[in-house]
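Deliverable D4.2, example record:
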Amino acid sequence: MTKLIVEFLGLTTLSKAIGKSIVIELPEGSTVSDIFPWLTSRFGKKAASALLEPSGQVDDTIQVIVNDEGFLKRELWGGRLLRNGDTIKLMLLVGGG
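Output generated by the structure prediction step:
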């Protein structure tokens, strides 16, 4: 199993429901994409409404940072293998003017 720290930034509803950070364990060989189904299966509607569009896809406003390496492009999520001890930040990215 791969133990990870997942932090939630700007996701107020989710942070109030499960905390600002949690430790999760995923099977070896898991990728960034695997975090979302784990969260929604574990925390149900609160996680789904904070992270997913009604279609079930990850909301376009959600961004991911792995180990403070900068934003990970969405098309790379499925190929980014997670390692034991990784810190994953899930952020709500909003624009303003």
